[in-house]
Fold each of these.
Amino acid sequence: MKDRLVYMDNAATSWPKPEAVEEAMIRAMREAGGNPGRSGHRLSAAAARVVFDAREAVARLISAPDSRQVVFTVNATTALNLAIAGVLEPGAHAVTTSMEHNSVARPLRYLESQGVGLTVVETGPDGRVDAGAVARAIRPETRLVAMTHASNVIGTVQPVEEVARLCRQRGVLLLVDAAQTAGCYPIDVGAWGVDLLAFTGHKSLLGPSGTGGLYVREGVAIRPLARGGTGSRSELDVQPDFLPDQLESGTPNVVGLAGLAAGVGVVLEEGVEAIRRREDELAGRLREGLRAIPGVAVYGPPEGVEAVGVVSFNLEGVEPSDLGYILDVEYGILCRVGLDCAPWAHRTIGTYPRGTVRLSLGFNNTAADVDHVLGAVTEMAAEARREGKP
Amino acid sequence: MPVFVVFPSTHEAMSLDRLLTQAGIDHELVPVPREISASCGFAVRLRPEHEAAARALVDSGGVRTEGFHRLGPDA
């Protein structure tokens, strides 16, 4: 089975991409090669339609009431930075959780050094944050609560809807990092009352890297990170104040957005609920199978706590980096090892600084893939015991 | 005399473009005529008999425009 490739690094980026994504990108390159909305000719119009379609597709996926409120960025990190830097000023206060990725932790720590107050709400090792604890951390000067929708280390899903309700009551903005959920877990920004939601295009939305964006609830004012050409109000030398143009300066990634629209199309056709059910079943099989292997420690939520298909584990006596290397070279299993750009989360679950082996399921994985992984880890555990490691 | 619809942003132009296409109403995306605005970007050009239908789509679809303009055929 050495030739077999089992890709379980979908929390880093999904692979392989649907053929429809490749085809849409090639078509955009050939048939929509103008600069969208800048030039007024047919190729410019074709490119503008590509961007429009991508915006409409994402709005539909997250149930945004108005696609104008979806702005594109090059990735979720840029979207998170845009939101965080766009609403916080020195003297303001922000609340976040101990399960955040560095794409939330680092911008907040930076702003803390510039005079923004910061409270990090700790969670238990299951990673689930208590909505009440978030609410209790809110102060009169709190402007923003920033939290992940699901952990990129152990998959725990956060009570975003409840936090949104509490934030609304207190007049505080809620920013949700949906990097690990958009496309594989239902999102309804309208019904939940989320103010800001950052997404990436290249994970469960099945698009290419270089795509992502931010949903901004109507009426929420954000300072742009960049100002420049928008193809609108060209007679003025000041930034337009309407979306999406205000937050989208410069030529966008038209080819990437063509792929993103196609990827979202595949997700919508399959249905997020159906994808969720399938991945949840596979994740259950994986967690359960790993727990049954002697010497394996599985981190993350126990039964009954919701999680997406991200599973972290360690094998006693073997370093995660060695494990990842052997899984790749000997078994064709591709995963991530170490700290997953999330030192806070690893401290929270007790795996800092060693990290874990992270298996993350995606659109293409099957039960046979899970069984292949379980077989490989079982062999490696037996090998470790023979060598007398634990 | 053709009718030109102009918009604050490309997104709005694309939005009406899509609605007109879905409704089967003949139209064209053209550069905004200089007589109307110095802005770059798209205008939607329509035959005058389609103006009422386009206005109805603008209203029902919540499209933001910067007006309907009638200009000579040389515009």
Note: Strands of chain B lie at 3-6, 28-31, 42-46, 68-70.
Amino acid sequence: MELTNFRDQLFAKGEKLGITDLEVYYEKQDSFSCKVFKGEVDGYESSSVRGVSVRGVYQDKMGYAYTEKLDEESVSFLLNSVQENAALMEEEPEELFEGNVDYQDYDFFSPALTDVSAEEKLALVKEIEAKILAYDERVVQVGYAALSDQSIEKAIFNNKGLALQDKNNFLYVIFSVTVKEGEEIKSGFSFKLTKDFATLNADEIAKEAVEKSLSQLGGKEYPNKKYPVIFQNFAASSLVATFVSSFSAEYVQKGQSQLKGKLGEKIASDHVTLSDNPFLPEGTQSGTFDSEGVPTREVTVVENGELKTYFHNLKTAKKDGVESTGHGYKSSYKGTIEVTPSNFYVVPTENKYEDLYSGLEEGIIITDLQGLHSGANPISGDFSLAANGFYVKDGKIAGPTNLMTIAGNFFDVLKDVEQVADDLEFSPGGGVGFIGSPSIKVKSLSVTVD
Amino acid sequence: MLNKSLIEDVLSAALTTGGDFSEVFVEDRYTNNMKLQGGRLETNLSGRDFGVGIRVFKGLQSVYAFTNDFSQEGLIQAAKTAAQAIQGAPTDKTIVLPMEKQTLQTLHPIELLPNSVEKTRKLAVMRKANEIVTNYDPSIAQGIISVVDEEQNILVANSEGTFAEDKRVRSRMSIVAVASDGSDMQTGHYGPGAHQGFEFIENLDLNHYAKEAARIAVTMLNADPAPSGKFPVIIDNEFGGVIFHEACGHGLEASSVAKNNSVFANRVGEKVASDLVTYIDDGTLPNEWGSLNIDDEGEKTRKNTLIENGILKGYMIDKFNARRMNAESTGSGRRESYKFAPTSRMTNTYIAPGKSTPEEIIANTEHGIYAKYMGGGSVNTATGDYNFAINEAYLVKNGKIDKPLRGATLVGNGAKTIQKIDMVGNNLGHGAGMCGASSGSLPVNVGQPMVRVSEITVGGTEA
């Protein structure tokens, strides 16, 4: 069944059942991915999936349901579920957005990207894998050599007149490398995301992945104590990503954020500015409206350490007596409206990465963090995480450390940021929003070396 | 779910470019997700997932396509797109499936299908759990209770004549207690689940599970920062098994073994663990959270002994990796949904019980760490390096459990840690979890009796 037909049936039958406000949120995702192992195609996947979620007000309460099967049986399933689910809710219903406002004029869809053939994509992955294997004899394995692209179409319709459509696409490659010297095994990776296939340089990507891995060989034990710590850009962005819910008004209002009551206060050092930009050309979350249909806009959340605003959707904004910031997003058609960032990042400065450690007598550089989903408490901000990285002596990188754990509190880290570099990168990890950071230097953290 | 002749046409279309194996996986799944937070029902969502996955092999090449366009044209088109990636000699094979689907005697009887139960009945149980949590102690700020259930109907057919259907019904309750003393917040969690209907939720011993979640949160509020360094570590039963799930289980999956990307590859018959360790994956345990009648490739699940008295016996193998390894499937091919090609995964994995009593293990430990409840963690399967959070930890002093500790993380190497197990208890228990890997997020049980590891690095906040 076509979407318009499905929507019309749903609106018509919904009205008969006494469902007053009704909204259809539609998403269609076309994807391609391929993986290579030792020159052979190891994975090859193509897909086309669509889904519809419906929310509606029945007897002054709002109910939600979704389906991936667009047929008549599903129309009944959705409407019955909306009625049954609404009956149990105690909350005021969310308001549907009527629209009638201006939206920014941006296009995040690159038609050229869809013209790249599967053969070309596969050839690039094979080329990079071969270059990695040939780069150094200590390379024992390319654990992961993959390319993936996605094209996402979104549409929102409601029976109050809102009708919006949007499209975004992007492509990324990721390579992980295992290197071995003696009995020591280390791994590293390279990740690149783009809308322009021609910018992917096989030599650069191979070099980055191998050099990152090789640089970790020869790990040593160092004393367990507090050190000045530099988080490299990927590590810093994955740390920010872990605690991003603190900036959501939803968590603040539920009392699950340490930033509650801190608007207008200094929550970070002067060096920290955090910005959310839904119009970044290469942002995976870029778009001109959120999942409620509210226009998106650029928002400075923290400016030189001062907390300026939380992220809001219509419901949290109403509760706080402010305007929605355009952050009412659904993780997919399967989810409900939450409050999450779009493309959110620590704003870079002019400092070079090297400047962050060149003045240190002694310090630790963190290249990557593990265990973020388990070793961190997103509410309290406490973390105790496994990490890889380097030991710094007299302003120079002395060499890699054995596996470390670093422990501290995210909100203390924000206050202890002493320098921010110019090398902004966005984290490849999934999760909420698209989160980035340059490398940052923190006054001191507790480090344990295995 | 799809008629037989259409499946046969799709299987045949997928082989037109010279593939030597094709497979169709159809899924129709109803899910419900309810969350009660601070006494209010915050989430109440119902959904229907439906789609088809098509897989083609040629030798060691594998192609996957999935769609939820279930029209004849849509499915044939998806099969042809997949076939395009296979560059073999064009063929014109016609696949004919058996007349009747394989009939299964279920090992996991279901009494109450989730969608046959009124949501008010589910909410009543959730409210009861919330009441127990919030009444436990004045420092409890709130309870977060969720019930997730699903009915997953699947059909698997392949060009070798497999033609089978299965119904998987799962229910899980998650209880989170948040305790606060004004400045600090700590959480406690318990999440029992089963391959069972609503009868599982209704019969849960809430007095045990909800109270434990609350007790953990309150205990952690009054805990001291954990020390750092190397200690003997005692890990208790049930969800404690997560550490060996990550540190050893993943390294025993064919998805890492087949490509030599595991420290356990090519070592069958060798001693890889302490003599005290027998490690088993068993997808047949009745109604357990990770159990299945057939895997997502249509193979019957079974009891696979992975390590016996320290000797590596075998791996968990799916159909595709079986080709690379020159081995047979062990009924371990799993996927989150039609959106994932299956690969080798765990079901219910556990360390078999030993002879020591928990009391003996603690009494024999002079100075160490006792991990009563583990949190989550992860492992790099190439190196075996792992990291874990301990949700409820204690110092052990002179053979007695001493003060509670917070912020403790365990880091180490799986292959080394299983050699250092020096005591195994007699109190085997299983705990439900969700395991994420390349074929998606899957329900699995982890399990073990209490075990002691002679030395693990503990990373605490007290440097």
Note: The two ends of chain A are 58 Å apart (CA to CA).
